[in-house]
Amino acid sequence: MVRPIAGKFGRNEWAIVGGTCTAIKLLADKVIAALAIEYNCAYADTSHNDDMMKPPGRLTSGAALEYTDQINFSQLNYKAPLTLFKQRELFAQADIVLVNGNHQQAQAQVVIVDINKRSSLERRVGQLTNVRMILLADNVTEPFDFLKKAVPNWHSLPIFRLNDGLPHIINFFRHELLQNEPQLNGLVLAGGKSTRMGIDKGTVNWRGKEQRYYMADLLKEFCKDVFISCRDVAQQEEIDPQYNTLTDTFTGLGPYGGILSAFRQNPNAAWLVIACDLPLVDEQLLHHLTDHRSVKHVATAYHSKATDFPEPLITIWEPKAYPVILQFLSQGYSCPRKVLINSDISLLQVPNAESLSNVNTPEEMDRVKRIIHHKLAQSDAS
Question: How far apart are CA 49 and CA 343, in angstroms?
């Protein structure tokens, strides 16, 4: 079992430590405001109130959970403390989590060097396990000696002024997120039984090779690793060994099981999933899809004019989709389209609606063959 990359909160998290809580919150506000268009941003802190406070609302009466649908946001109050696992679940959709390091820890740190918080920072020096950036307050000219000792590579880290280095600070986080963007893998869904077609759609030869191999070769231009999805070992043994295969470990779920099996194999990658029964998908459409990929969303998909819904079988599923798909399954749903309809996705308009033509019957196969032969003839003539 491969575990997703995660810290205390999420995949990309930084504790901002060493400044006043006001300075940390102001910095977090500015960074979030700059990045929120591109990324899902989150913030974690602890209340400063040292007095014992009564739980709010119905929690006082004994409720374990209270949900309030506010006008501009939704609010959940929990009675029980959040475990590490529940934290990760709640922050699973966040691309970046900024943490007040004076109260909480994270797998990476940004250190503010402020003479007024010197003793506070020195008490937390043991928490500085992965310092990635140093910010100098106006009252200092360089890091403290104990910080230099605790962070031997301090001189090679980006060092900016806290109050006038905001563009550099924002660029630091943006660069880190780009560097950590999940790799894109490809998955050709070829595990269907093709009952209506009467023959295996993955083996249909549209362009000089079987469709499952044609799609796998096409995806190699856009994806780091490409796999052909198989429903069982028997089908896997039929595949040309030069192609990577991925056998369903979630069986009996059709395409849903193929997608889940891919995430189980690599939960840290995004998956460009495409079905074998979309023979008019071409390089131009995949360029359009990958160029408009949105890592902020659960998935990037096309709107199908034929169904007036998202098309799940040519979709980029981000790593954050994995827990979402599992949650739908736990509620008894195994329809990828239902996941897309009810999730935060980026929905694209398809440049050419014909590209999403689905082939399920011999009649549809004959029509698509004529279209492909016409395109090939045009290409040869030019």
Answer: 36
Q: How far apart are CA 159 and CA 142, in angstroms?
A: 9
* Cα gap 149→160, rounded to integer Å: 19
Which of helix, strand or coil describes residue 304?
strand
Distance CA 143, CA 153 (A): 12
* pLDDT tens string 35-88: 999 999 999 999 876 666 788 889 999 999 999 999 999 999 999 889 999 999
What's the helix, strand, coil split of the chain in %, to 5? 35, 20, 45
Q: Enter the tokens of residue 251.
A: 């069986």
Q: What is the pLDDT of residues 143-175, one digit of tens each?
A: 999 999 999 999 999 999 999 999 999 999 999
| Cα separation, 209 vs 170, whole angstroms | 48
Tokens of 188: 């050709």
Q: What does the DSSP 8-state code read for residue 282?
A: -
Q: Write out the E strands in 103-197.
A: 108-113, 131-136, 159-161, 184-189
Phi, psi of 64 (to 5 degrees): -85, -25
Q: Where do the H-state alpha helices sit in 11-152?
A: 21-35, 84-90, 118-123, 145-150
b/e 179-197 (16+ beta carbons within 10 angstroms → b): eeebebbbbbbbbbebeeb
Report the predicted TM-score, pTM, of the whole model to 2 decimal places: 0.92
| Domain spanning 13-48+86-179: CATH superfamily | P-loop containing nucleotide triphosphate hydrolases (3.40.50.300)
Over 90: is that where the pLDDT of 184 sits? yes
Say how far apart CA 158 and CA 169 lie, in whole Å.
Answer: 9
Domain extent listing, the chain = 13-48+86-179, 184-381
Q: Are 144 and 113 in contact (CB under 8 A)?
A: yes
Answer CATH for 184-381 from 1.20.1560.10, 3.40.50.450, 3.40.50.720, 3.90.550.10: 3.90.550.10
CA torsion angle 172 177 178 181 (round to 10): 160
Nearest to 39 by CA among 154, 131, 170, 164: 170
Residue given tokens 């659960």 in the structure block: 298
